[in-house]
Amino acid sequence: MRLLILEDDPQLGEALSGGLRQQGHVVDWFTSGPPADAALRGTPYDALVLDLGLPGTDGLVWLRRWRQGGLALPVLVLTARDTLEQRIEGLDLGADDYLIKPIALDELAARLRAMLRRATGRATQAEWVHGDLRYDPASKQVRWKDKPVELTGRETALLEVLLKNPQRVLSKNQLLEQLYDWGGGEPESNALEVHIHHLRRKIAPGLVRTIRGLGYALGAAEDQA
Ligand code: CA
């Protein structure tokens, strides 16, 4: 998942972004609203984690602005305000879920997975199946013809993006945006090709189709070797 975290508390922001990165997500963490606002306009995030108590403009004000501006992204609100009225206000303004501080990383990760399942219409399906391929987004485990496949974090993230968009051709830039966050510097120019090569080798040659001049698409999940 590519996630945006807006949290001004340095320790909590560091812990959440670090922990979610370790679980294989791509995370951009901001400590104030304006840069997060700019990032949201140009980046295809899967979900937003939003703290309410922010310096300057309050998180609920940002949420209202973004929803009025047409932002359809799932939003999980972090709040120290545990009164019922404030939770209801957040949900009414367009939050999809909320957690009350202190935050447990594992619970946050599980709620994000549940939000994504609902957003992609896989609410009843914990495991994603594509032909002979099975992928469990909770454990990040991949099985091919009932045998486990060892993938790196980026290979897993790439497979997840392809499985999430089974009918679409994805450009190189669209895929790279899902694999690399802003903090890590520019990836090597052939990084994507290398990850795709590894996916084809470890799973099946036909799993990723090259669409000349356009990008890549999920191919047939059956052995065509
Ligand atoms: Ca705060």
From TrEMBL:
Q: Which Pfam families match?
A: Response_reg (PF00072), Trans_reg_C (PF00486)
Positions carrying 4-aspartylphosphate:
51
Q: SUPFAM superfamilies this protein is in?
A: CheY-like
Which residues does the UniProt record annotate as the domain Response regulatory?
2-116
Query: Gene3D superfamilies from the entry?
Result: 3.40.50.2300, 6.10.250.690, Winged helix-like DNA-binding domain superfamily/Winged helix DNA-binding domain (1.10.10.10)
What is the first-listed, main subcellular location in coarse terms? Answer: cytoplasm
Q: Where would you find the membrane-spanning parts of this chain?
A: none
InterPro entries assigned: CheY-like_superfamily, OmpR/PhoB-type_DNA-bd, Sig_transdc_resp-reg_receiver, WalR-like, WH-like_DNA-bd_sf
> For the OmpR/PhoB-type domain, which residue ranges apply?
125-220
Q: Which UniProt keywords apply?
A: Cytoplasm, DNA-binding, Phosphoprotein, Transcription, Transcription regulation, Two-component regulatory system
Q: What is this protein called?
A: Transcriptional regulator
DNA-binding annotation, residue ranges on this chain: 125-220
* Gene Ontology cellular-component terms listed: cytosol; protein-DNA complex
Location(s), subcellular: Cytoplasm
- Annotated Gene Ontology MF terms? phosphorelay response regulator activity; transcription cis-regulatory region binding
What are the BP-aspect GO terms?
A: regulation of DNA-templated transcription
- The question of whether Cell wall biogenesis/degradation is a record keyword is answered with no
Q: Which organism is it from?
A: Hylemonella gracilis str. Niagara R
**What CDD domains does the entry give?**
REC_OmpR_PmrA-like, trans_reg_C
Superkingdom, natural source: Bacteria
